Amino acid sequence: MEKRNYQREMETEIARLEGRRPTLLLHSCCGPCSSAVLERLTEHFSVTLLYYNPNIEPEEEYLHRLAEQQRLLTLLPREIPMLPCAYDNEAFEAFAPALADAPEGGERCLACFVLRLNYTAEHAKKHGFEYFTTTLSVSPHKNADNVNRIGEEAGKKYGVKYLFADFKKKNGYLRSLELSKEYGLYRQDYCGCRYSNQKNSDLSTMQNAE
Ligand code: SF4
Question: How many H-runs (helices) and E-runs (strands) does the chain carry?
């Protein structure tokens, strides 16, 4: 089967807008990833940001990333509103322990994408946004096919248009590194959940060895 080019699909969708700037709800995983995505999307859409990341552990880390996200928004040339959202770790804990041994990129991560993209689609519909999408594909560690498939399914489920994208393309990831440096953003060294935090694995290895 021919590999889909989500960057090209996004460009085609943008060309169809003919200069109109529709509303779009952007799920953001963190400030650094959102920096390059916002730069790209705000040219064409009226963007509102949603920081729904119940997967981030511990809560202090969630709050630190949230504060960096908010600080970034104060530094950008365009005003980007943000939908309020609470730390909903119970929603992640409802399925994650059963998938604790799954490798990064496996079943736990797919369920994590479903949780975050369903919530975003639901709120995009509820607040009358025309589109929604996510920053997740900017990371070289995230499979764009999985992100886009889950986004498309969430869009169908809640009746709102999902914007296909692969934000790492056209140097998107490199641009996020540049902008993070320019704005002095904190860049975390693990994806988000405790299973992806090497310090936790080191700790549990040490505890198991005791
Ligand atoms: S590794 Fe990242 S994407 Fe996977 S479950 Fe943990 S936080 Fe979610």
Answer: 8, 5
